[in-house]
Design a protein that fits this description.
Blueprint (H helix, E strand, L loop, with lengths): L1 E5 L7 E5 L2 E5 L11 E13 L3 H4 L6 E6 L5 E5 L6 E6 L5 E7 L10 E3 L8 E5 L4 E5 L5 E6 L5 E9 L5 E8 L6 E9 L5 E9 L14 E5 L3 E6 L5 E6 L4 E6 L11 H6 L7 H5 L11 E4 L5 E8 L6 E6 L5 E7 L13 E4 L2 E7 L5 E12 L1
Parallel strand pairs: 3-20
Antiparallel strand pairs: 1-2, 2-3, 4-27, 5-6, 6-7, 7-8, 9-10, 10-11, 11-12, 13-14, 14-15, 15-16, 17-18, 18-19, 19-20, 21-22, 22-23, 23-24, 25-26, 26-27
Length: 378
């Protein structure tokens, strides 16, 4: 039931309420909000280059994810490690400090790791999928506790997102207990011990011969201090906003610029498949890409909805920035998001007015870029 609406006549977003949930319809506009930024500039402050001899000597060969702690130390998580350490710590200027969390079967070791953001207590959680456990490290690399992972919970890569109240939002694959076949994708709210509090969303997993479009609905989740945000990669232009208890409080709607599917994209996807694969006859490639590639949030409760558009000068992904109240206040280019078809890598962090992002160099080696952010407000 719609209770009220306001803002349309003043040229701002239209706000309505339906069943206690605020709907913020931004359309295609960008709107000024008092106290919120109207412009943004970035200045590069440093980088961590895995092609550099000193960095390579640490054992960091590839980067899967990153985070930043309260002291400004940069944590990099190594991709695809089958031996050696998986967590690498650099100081706020990009100088190597230490590495830890080795691959193995012994105490303090992990197999088939999944990496989370730092939790509310500053601990570094690392999931060992093979051992069905989560190891919590301190900044010095010592295991402070271990928690068992629930049965039949198979998280997406980077699917664990700690909340400020100690709970977790987890995006995962649901499986059939009798066959362990994938049945659906889910997003749920879990307690500090990973006990299930609430399932928030369920998305069906179609059989391979039933897939009709290349863009499958993987959930996209971002977390700020006060909220978490949820949408999908393909079928929605709507972003849901929840409080930390899992209560839906707002929906953000906006129109996004259409970005054409690039030439050769269809052939690139299908080229590696055998001629009798059902994708050849079933798969449709729309003219334009979906609205969302990734969601990000900063420590000011602002949301960044990253699309498929790119800034021609820098190659950076173009995104819309929304105020804590759901108003689109800026369109800008941040980070170096890549076009991909699976759950997106969360390779951009915005904390303490700094932006940290992973970029793949032309040589194929990844590097971390560190920028300071300068905001111009109303």
């Amino acid at each position: 039931m719609v209770l009220c609406a306001c803002g349309g006549d003043q040229g701002g977003p239209v706000r309505t309420f339906q069943d206690g949930v605020e709907i913020v319809e931004n359309g295609a506009g960008i709107y000024p909000v008092k106290g919120q930024p109207r412009a943004l500039s970035l200045r590069e402050e440093g980088r961590i280059d895995t092609e550099d001899d000193a960095v390579a000597a640490t054992g960091l060969t590839d980067i899967e994810n990153l985070d930043v702690d309260s002291q400004g130390r940069i944590l990099l998580f190594r991709r695809g490690a089958t031996s050696g350490n998986t967590v690498f710590v650099f100081d706020d200027r990009g100088r190597f400090v230490r590495s830890f969390c080795p691959v193995g079967q012994g105490p303090g070791e992990v197999q088939n790791p999944r990496f989370m953001r730092l939790n509310a207590g500053g601990e570094i959680p690392v999931v060992s999928l093979t051992g069905r456990k989560v190891l919590f490290f301190n900044a010095e690399g010592t295991v402070v506790r271990t928690v068992a992972l629930p049965e039949l919970l198979f998280p997406f890569p980077h699917g664990f997102l700690p909340l400020a109240n100690g709970d977790y939002v987890i995006a995962y694959v649901r499986v059939k207990p009798e066959t362990l076949e994938f049945s659906s994708y889910g997003v749920g709210l879990f307690g500090p011990d990973f006990s299930r509090r609430r399932e928030l969303k369920v998305y069906p997993v179609p059989a391979e011969d039933e897939i009709k479009t290349i863009f499958i609905d993987f959930p996209l989740v971002a977390v700020s201090r006060t909220f978490f945000f949820l949408t999908t990669m393909a079928s929605s232009r709507e972003i849901e906003v929840y409080d930390l208890s899992g209560r839906l409080i707002r929906k953000i709607l906006a129109d996004y610029p259409a970005v054409d599917v690039p030439p050769g994209f269809r052939e690139e996807i299908l080229h590696s498949l055998p001629p009798d694969h059902p994708f050849w006859r079933n798969l449709a490639f729309p003219r334009t890409l979906p609205p969302f590639l990734a969601l990000l949030a900063d420590d000011h409760d602002r949301l960044y909805a990253v699309g498929y558009g790119q800034d021609q000068a820098t190659g950076a992904g173009v995104c819309d920035m929304f105020s804590p109240g759901g108003v689109r206040i800026l369109r800008t280019a941040l980070g170096y998001q890549r076009l991909q078809l699976g759950p997106p890598l969360r390779d951009v962090i915005i904390k303490n007015d700094r932006l940290y992002c992973i970029r793949e160099k032309p040589s194929g080696f990844p590097e971390v870029l560190i920028f300071s952010l300068r905001w111009t407000s109303n």
